[in-house]
UniProtKB/TrEMBL annotation:
Protein name as catalogued: Thioredoxin reductase
Presence of keyword Repressor: no
GO molecular function: thioredoxin-disulfide reductase (NADPH) activity
Cofactor names: FAD
Domain FAD/NAD(P)-binding: 9-300
Gene transcribed to yield this protein: trxB
Length: 322
């Protein structure tokens, strides 16, 4: 490994709405942020076609354009956006300590503060017909894409709180929602189960899995299979929502930052502070409940403000000591 060292005030990891919003605020506060984009520049929104629920876009905007504009806005105030993947971190335990971040297994950047906005990735079933129709009627976000299926028949896979919440959301918009649950019971909380069961246009199918998504360019139907009897059945649908969980992109922080059992970073209440001083977490990497672009952007702003305050405290201590 080459020993190229560079010191920055604020290093931002990730380029979704959280990362770019943190960058806008950090740059305007003169923290001279350097942002590494990660593997998927622009984050999850670049896989969405139309974003209709981000305030300020009355006609909606497509995900990739929105992310490009956020990047331009961050760069306008002096953020240095770099293509690169953070492959390892060595985070300091000391207030005022320096965090070492390895980029692409080769370069080490030293940072006074680190803002983590690495996001999360939706899990998919990973069957060929589902992968082929992603963006053509297969979606992992009902709140983002449900509107396009107004008055139509759709299906949703999953039995957790997200699936139950999204099924209820879809039931308000769509004519009928078929919910596929692989076990003979729903994992969702009792309250969410009650909500699902109280909605007449949700049909819950237990012990049921996706056999194949039917359609050439767009979803036209679904072949389901009962995993107890092996019996198959086809239904006509135009949208298939996958709600089988998300995986936060936090593996590189394992053993260094506190996280819950599923890998979501734990932040102090009403703050983006992680378990290490000078390290802040924003967006989906620390949020398993809301997971919206606007909430990610909000926590990105909080992380930049927290970093600015932290640096001011550290600098004033250094002044007192010297
Ligand atoms: P969960 O992991 O809780 O649930 C995932 C669901 O998907 C389970 O029913 C699981 O089935 C099913 N599943 C997983 N893999 C497959 C597969 N390959 N094929 C078919 N089904 C599959 O994820 P959620 O996103 O629902 O929730 C994550 C966390 O966030 C939870 O702690 C939840 O409580 C929380 N949350 C809270 C909310 C709230 O409080 N309002 C809202 C949303 C989430 P099985 O049960 O068989 O494993």
């Amino acid at each position: 490994m080459s020993e190229q060292l560079e010191r920055v005030k604020t290093l931002i990891v990730g380029s979704g709405p959280a990362g770019y919003t943190a960058a806008i605020y950090a740059a305007r506060a003169d923290l001279k942020p350097v942002l590494y984009t990660g593997m998927e520049p622009g984050g999850q929104l670049t896989t969405t076609t139309e974003v209709d629920n981000f305030p300020g876009y009355p006609e909606g905007i497509d995900g990739p354009t929105m992310m490009m504009q956020l990047q331009q806005q961050a760069e306008r105030f002096g953020t240095e956006v770099r293509i690169g993947m953070i492959t390892a971190v060595d985070l300091s335990d000391e207030v005022g300590g320096i965090h070492k971040v390895t980029v692409d297994d080769s370069k080490i950047v030293e940072a006074e503060t680190v803002i983590i906005s690495t996001g999360a990735s939706a899990k998919y079933l990973n069957i060929p017909s589902e992968q082929r129709l992603r963006g053509g009627g297969v979606s992992a976000c009902a709140v983002c894409d449900g509107f396009f299926y107004k008055g139509q028949e759709v299906a949703i896979v999953g039995g957790g709180d997200t699936a139950a919440e999204e099924a209820s959301y879809l039931a308000n918009i769509c004519k009928k929602v078929t919910m596929l649950i692989r076990k003979d019971e729903m994992r969702a909380s009792k309250a969410m189960q009650h909500r699902v069961n109280s909605l007449e246009n949700i049909e819950v199918r237990y012990n049921t899995e996706v056999d194949e998504v039917i359609g050439d360019q767009v979803v036209e139907g679904l072949r389901m299979v009962n995993n107890q009897t092996g019996e198959k059945e086809e239904i006509a649908i135009t949208g298939l929502f996958i709600a089988i969980g998300h995986k936060p992109n936090t593996d590189i922080f394992k053993g260094q930052l506190e996280m819950d059992e599923t890998g979501y970073l734990i932040t102090q209440p009403k703050s983006t502070k992680t378990s290490k001083p000078g390290v802040f977490a924003s967006g989906d990497a620390q949020d398993k409940i809301y997971r919206q672009a606007i909430t990610a952007a909000g926590t990105g702003c909080m992380a930049a403000l927290d970093a600015e305050r932290y640096l001011a405290t550290v600098e004033s201590k250094e002044t007192l000591v010297s």
